Amino acid sequence: MSEPASKPEPGTKSKSPARPQSGGNRRGAIAGLIIIIVILGVGWWLARDLTAASKMQDCLMSGRRNCNVIEPAR
């Protein structure tokens, strides 16, 4: 009986080297990119909201009464 061909003999090269699958790596990279985009979007929204709240507080602390933003009629 012959031995199974699971291990090549020392000093010989295997004919077909194992290649890693690239599909899993791309999924992880795409998922990471989506998470980063979501975090940046939430951070941008939060920064704008906090800036607006800070401006409103500055206006109210200075004693003014007309701090509301008036939008033009359409």
UniProtKB/TrEMBL annotation:
Transmembrane feature ranges: 29-47
Keyword field: Membrane, Transmembrane, Transmembrane helix
Record keyword Transmembrane present: yes
Keyword Membrane: yes
Sequence segments annotated as region (Disordered): 1-25
Domain of life: Bacteria
Protein name: Uncharacterized protein
Organism field: Bradyrhizobium betae
